[in-house]
Amino acid sequence: MGAYSLQTYNQHQLLSFFNWFYWLVNLNSTVVFLGIAYIQQSVAQNLGFLIPFTSVLLALIAIHMTRSKLTYRPRKGGSLLTTLGVFLNSLKMCCLHRRHLSGDVVSWLDRAKENNGGRYSERHVESVKVLTELFPLYGLQLLYRACVTQIPSGYYIQAMNSNLHLDVLLLPIGTMNVVSILPLLLLAPLAEFVTTYLLSTGKTPLAPAKLIALGHACAALSVLGAGVSEMWRRLHPLVEQTLSGKVLQVSSMPCFHLAPQYVLLGVAEALVTPACSLISFQLTPSHIRGISLHFLTLSYGGGCFLGALILQLVHAVSGGDFYPNSLQDGNLEGFFFILSTLMAVNTLLFWRVSIKGNELEPDVTVLPGSSQDSSSSVLDVLKLFYSLV
After folding, report:
1. Residue 231 has pLDDT above 50, yes or no
2. For this UniProt entry, which segments traverse the membrane (predicted)?
3. What SS3 class is residue 233?
4. Domain range enclosing 270
5. CA nearest to 12, candidates 252, 344, 363, 389
6. Start-to-end C-alpha separation, the chain
C-alpha cells in the first residue's frame, strides 16, 4: 500500500525504504520465533495457535476500520485487469491472424494496440511491454525462493533431528530461524550507513543487480553447507530428545553447528529482497508499479511450489530413500547438493542476464521532485513510515 507514496524518491531513498521495511518485518518475525514458538513447544500447543489467530483478527478489524484511507484507486490503465487484458487481447489477435508477426510489429504485444486492431491504447501496451522485460528477474527468483523455503522445511527437519539442549534448557526449534534473521537485522542499518558514506564521498554503491547476484551466491553456499552439515550430523551418536510430548532419537550434534547455513541464507535475504523490490518498482511506469510488486510476490509464491515440486521429484526418484521415517537412515544431503547445484547455475544465469544490455539496472538519475542530498534520505524515509502509520 505504501508503493504509491514513493513516486518522488530517488534510487538511494527507495532502497533505504525497502531495507527498513523488511527490517521491521523481520524484527516482528524474531519476536514470533522466540516467543510464540517457545510457548507452542514448551507451554501449550493450542495457546501457540491462539495468539497469532487473535493478532490476525485484531489486524483485520483495524484494516476494516481504516479501509477508506487504505484504498488506492490507480489511474485509468493502471489496474491489474487492464494489464492482464493486454496479454489476453494480444494472444487473441495473434490467433485470429494465424500468422507470424509482420515486419511492422516489434513485439507480439503490439497486436493489442488499437492501430493494429486491438482494444488498448499505445500507452497501455507500452507499459505492459516494460513489465514483461522484468519477467527474467521474476523467473530467476523462483529457485532462490525455493532455497529460502528450506528454513521451514529441510533446515527445520535438520534442527528437529539435532540436539536442541543448551545445558538444561530445551531451545525451541524457532531459535534457528532467529539465527537467519539476525544478519538481516544487522546488515540493513550497516548497508544504510555504508551507502550514505559512499554517496557523501562521491563514490557509487553496488548496483542492485550485483547485490542480487551476490545474494544468490550466498543462497547456493547456504544449501551446499546444509548438505555438508547433514553428513556431519549423521556421524554423531543418537540421543533421546522430547519434543511436544514425543520422545525422538536425534543426533547428539548441537543444533548451533547448523548456524552457518542459516547465517548465509539471512545474508542472502538482506541483499536480494530489498534490491528486487527496488528494481521492480523503479523500472516500471508509475501507474503499474504496484502491479510490478505483485508479480514479484507471485514469483516468491511460485518458488515455494517449485521447491515442493523438486522435493517430490527427488522423493519419487529415490523411492523415499532421501526422506525415511528416521532421518538418520536417509540421504537428505543429496537433495541439498542437487538444490545447491541448481542454484549455482541460476546465479550464473542471473549474472549473465543482468550484464547483457544492462537490463536490470535501475536509472540512477534523481526522479523529479526529489532531493540529491543523500544525508537527508534516512529522515525522509522515517517521515514516510510515520505518514503511512
Report:
1. yes
2. 20-39, 46-65, 178-199, 211-229, 293-314, 334-351
3. helix
4. 3-73+133-388
5. 363
6. 11
Q: Which three cell numbers stand for residue 138?
A: 521474476
Give me the number of domains the chain comprises.
Answer: 1
For residue 381, the model assigns a pLDDT of 41
Q: Which of 341, 330, 179 is nearest to 254 (CA)?
A: 179
How distant is the alpha carbon of residue 195 from its chain centre?
22
Q: Which pLDDT belongs to residue 214?
A: 94
Give the lowest-confidence range in 71-80, 224-233, 337-346, 355-364. 355-364
CATH number at residue 183: 1.20.1250.20
Residue 286 lies inside a defined structural domain of this protein: yes
Q: Does residue 328 surpass a pLDDT of 90?
A: no
Tell me the DSSP string of 84-111.
HHHHHHHHHHHHHHTSPPPTT-SSGGGG
Mean pLDDT of the chain: 79
Please give the grid coordinates belonging to residue 257: 553447528
Has residue 115 been placed in a domain?
A: no
Best mean pLDDT range from 83-97, 155-169, 262-276: 262-276
Q: Quick one: pLDDT band at residue 107, thresholds 50, 70, 90?
A: confident
Nearest-angstrom CA–CA distance, 88 and 83 = 9
CA 100, 104, 108, 113 dihedral sign is: negative
Residue recorded with cell 544449501: 223
Structural domain contains residue 312:
yes
* Long-range pairs of 294-301 with CB within 8 A, sequence gap ≥ 24: 294/80, 295/131, 295/134, 295/138, 296/137, 296/138, 296/141, 298/138, 299/138, 299/139, 299/141, 299/142, 299/145, 300/141, 300/145
How far apart (Å, rounded) are the C-alpha atoms in residues 341 and 101?
Answer: 38
DSSP state of 345: H
| Rounded Cα distance, 220 and 281, in Å | 26
Q: Provide the pLDDT for residue 201.
A: 84
Residue 373 CB partners (closer than 8 Å, separation 6+) = none
Secondary structure of residue 246 in the 3-state scheme: strand
Q: What's the pLDDT tens digit per position in 10-62?
A: 777 888 888 888 888 888 888 877 777 777 766 777 777 888 889 899 999 99
Domain membership of residue 127 (yes or no) is no
